[in-house]
Amino acid sequence: EFTMLFPRMYSSQRSHVDAYKEWSDFKGRPMRSTDREGKPTVIHKPTFGENMRFFFSYQLDWMYWRYFLWNFAGRQNDVQGHGNILEGNWLSGVDVIDEQRLGSQEFLPSSMTENKGYNRFYLLPLLLGMIGFIHQLVRHPKDWAITLMLFFFTGIAIVIYLNQYPFQPRERDYAYVGSFYAFAVWIGLGVLALYDAARTITQKELGMAVGAAAGLGALKYLVEWDGDHSMSYTILYMALLGGAALLAAHLLGRVVKNSVVHATLATVLGLVVPVVMVADGWDDHDRSTRMPARDLAADYLESCAPNAILFTNGDNDTFPLWYAQEVEGIRTDVRVVNLSLLNTDWYIDQMRRKAYDSEPVPFKMDPAKYRQGTRDVVALIPNEKVKGYLDLKRAMDFATDDRNLQQIFQLGMKDAYIPSQNFRITADSAFVFGPQGMLTAADTAYFTGDVRWTINKQYVLKNHFLMMDLLANNDWKRPIYFAVTTGPDSYLNLQDYFRLEGLTYRLVPVAGESANPNTYGSVATDIMLDNVMNKFKWGGMDYEPGVYLDENVLRMTTNLRLQIATLATELASEGRKEEAKQVLDLAQAKMPEKNVPYDRIMLPIIEAYYQADDTTSANRLTERLFTIMDENMNWYLSLSPKFANRVSDDMSMGKLVMERLARTAQIYGQKDLANKLNARAAEVDTLYQMKMEDIATQGMRTTNARF
Questions:
Q1: Largest alpha-carbon pair distance within the chain?
Q2: Pick from 427, 454, 475: which residue ends a domain?
Q3: Distances in Å between the alpha carbon of 13 and those of 10, 171, 314, 363, 487?
Q4: Residue 663's CB: how many other CB atoms inside 10 A?
Q5: What is the per-residue pLDDT for 332?
Q6: In this structure, is residue 493 part of a structural domain?
Q7: Same domain for 229 and 102?
Q8: Which of 25, 58, 200, 662 would bridge 677 by S-S if both were Cys, CB 3.0 to 4.6 A apart?
């Protein structure tokens, strides 16, 4: 009773469930069931119609046709989109069409139009392909069927097979390249169709073709009940433009009977398509001079002390590091440990072997204790008999002793557990303050002899269990680091004992209390200053002619700017303001706005400049960022309530950034600048309140973008 034909929604992850409901307009059908404890409950099962709605709106429209149109109509930007009107949509460049789906295109801010992924092909590749599609269908139907099968099985068939859930970790356009190649066949045949039009098409055939397309567009317009006429306008636009091209070929054919002239005309008309695509699409396909992946990987490795163990998590903070070590031989003494892979026994076995200049990771656990299916999940069940903080070595000994297994998660199965959530790691003062230690005399007042912390979870997975095994048995002999991009879920709640040394946090036996919301623990200013000024590489991001940095690279630069701001702020607080200014100036020179656009992440940079007493640079950046936010707000506020509601969070954020910039200038004594910014921020706030009232009055609700 819980099964159905062609199920599309299956993931139980909370974020996926919420997105399923939004994309399918979920209501569900109530059904009686029982929960995990056997108690009666009522659940809402997705209906077949809701499954199909999700299939068409998300899996087909968003995750296939959108990619298809990126290539043959145009693209809004290179930012991954999840259904809003600001990111990752297809775009034709014909405003009357685009404004139906994405809102007014009249006052687009430079932050959108200067994105290198802002590609306007004006539907020309799609039009030429559709001409070829119809030509082959009419003239060679068997060949058309073969091409259509190639198009289907390398595109839509893959969509059906993959059954993708929402919030994919990255755009998946690469999965359907085969179908895009198939459509390119029809584009080539479109040139042949133009040639044939000059030789053989009659006025009647031309009129029927254009009339049929225009009629289809008109019919589609009549049934577009939701007010979005982008599809009908697209059909009508293509009918008009395609009809004009065919008519031009037809008229020339009537005047000139020379087939060479006909072929020349078809070629010239056809060449318009690749010329337009190259003109607007070359810049976001040009990877020359782009080296941030390699250089930022080197920066991660250079942020570590010799013979360190560095925990990473995702693809982007792991694969480049492997390349840097394996291919270029950079810092092969550092052992990169990927936490995602640490859930597998074969990877743990690899970590226990020497690699290049890196000694084995000192796991103590016997391989039989972590084989796949063994201790994949370890419960944390506090026992009132265990007082205070449990020594981590004792905890690991208890959890790896098979005599302590109990039935916890599944009937008939025994699992490992630890009778506490509070742990302690002792630190030998003679070692940590010694020649090979990580503490200095300045840390003496804060050293308590051990690390004490709480894991606020009911269980840990194998990767964190192995991390605990390492922490218990390392005895502080090897430096342990976490990449700043791994995220709090990977830190085991040890953040208070982190010390920032670059693009990594080092685990130290001294708790730090940072007032900076952009970092954890403390900052090793001397070490990090040396790393940034003398060891960091910048990936050619300062290349004057320009370099293409896509969303993934820019995400890394955002992180880099945050760490630079943290270092500069800490240096300024220590009275080292000239060094703080040098760090900030270096970052600005190596990551100029031309290649690394400014956004709200510049706020900490601006405040750091003020704290370093460089008011000239701070004021200049303040005015520039304020202008960027003002441009964005001008566009948001120009949107109709239907579309303004879809960017309400962005409007709110833009307004807050403008107000914060004005407030920051006021705090640091820049009265004239603050007055100017406050005046404009007040105007924007008034317009914002009026727009929100319009949205509320018209009862708009947020919806995902539709094809």
A1: 100
A2: 475
A3: 9, 19, 19, 32, 19
A4: 14
A5: 97
A6: no
A7: yes
A8: 662
CA 365, 371, 375, 376 dihedral sign is positive
Rounded CA-CA distance 188/44 in Å is 50
- Token code pair at residue 369: 């204790």
Q: 73: helix, coil or strand?
A: coil
Average pLDDT, the chain: 93
Is residue 5 included in any domain, yes or no? no
Beta strand 504-507 pairing with 498-500: antiparallel
- Whether residue 626 contacts residue 660, with contact meaning beta carbons closer than 8 Å, is answered with no
| Domain edge (last residue) among 425, 460, 475 | 475
Q: Residue 696's closest CA among 648, 630, 655?
A: 648
User: Distance of CA 325 to CAs 45, 212, 328, 333, 540, Å?
Assistant: 50, 61, 6, 9, 20
Tell me whether residue 501 is in a domain: no
Same-domain check for residues 553 and 414: no
Tell me how far apart the alpha carbons of residues 548 and 596 are, in angstroms, rounded to a whole number. 9
Helix, coil or strand: residue 683: helix
> Based on the structure, what is the number of domains in the chain?
3
If you ran DSSP here, which 8-state letter would residue 173 be given?
Answer: G
- Over residues 577-592, the mean pLDDT reads 98
> Do residues 375 and 255 both lie within one domain?
no
Q: Among residues of the chain, what percentage have pLDDT more than 90?
A: 81
Q: How far is CA 318 from CA 67, 196, 305, in A?
A: 27, 54, 18
The burial of 49, by beta-carbon neighbours within 10 Å (0-12 exposed, 13-18 middle, 19 or more buried), is given as exposed
User: Tens digit of pLDDT for each residue in 122-174?
Assistant: 999 999 999 999 999 999 999 999 999 999 999 999 999 999 999 998 999 99
In sequence order, the 6+-apart residues with CB closer than 8 A to the CB of 115 are 77, 78, 79
Q: Say if residue 451 is in the same domain as residue 565.
A: no
**CB-based contact 492:457 (threshold 8 Å):** no
Same domain, 131 and 251: yes
Q: How far is CA 552 from the centre of its chain?
A: 7
Q: Are residues 151 and 261 in the same domain?
A: yes
- The tens digit of pLDDT for each residue in 631-653 reads 999 999 999 999 999 999 999 99
For residue 704, the model assigns a pLDDT of 61
Place of tokens 């145009």: 74
Cα separation of the two ends of the chain? 33
Burial class (CB in 10 A: 0-12, 13-18, 19+), 225: exposed
Kindly tell me the burial class for residue 679, based on how many C-beta atoms sit within 10 Å of its own C-beta (0-12, 13-18, 19 or more). Answer: exposed
In the structure, how many helices (H) and strands (E) does the chain have?
Answer: 27, 16
Question: Which residue type, as a one-letter code, is found at position 152?
Answer: F
Which pair of tokens denotes residue 153?
A: 């099985």
- Pick the closest to residue 158 from 139, 172, 145, 146 (CA basis): 172
- Does 705 have pLDDT greater than 60? no
- The whole-angstrom separation of Cα 607 and Cα 625 is 13
Q: Are 437 and 476 in contact (CB under 8 A)?
A: yes
Do 161 and 267 reside in the same domain of the chain?
yes
The predicted structure's pLDDT at residue 44:
86
Query: Quick one: which of 598, 624, 623 has its CA closest to 676?
Result: 623
Q: Indicate whether 44 belongs to any domain.
A: no
| Structural domain range at position 446 | 363-475
pLDDT over threshold 60, residue 396: yes
What pLDDT score was predicted for residue 453?
96
Q: Are 152 and 258 in the same domain?
A: yes
What is the structure's pLDDT at 37?
A: 66
The SS3 call for residue 327 is: coil
Helix (H, G, I), strand (E, B) or coil at 377: strand
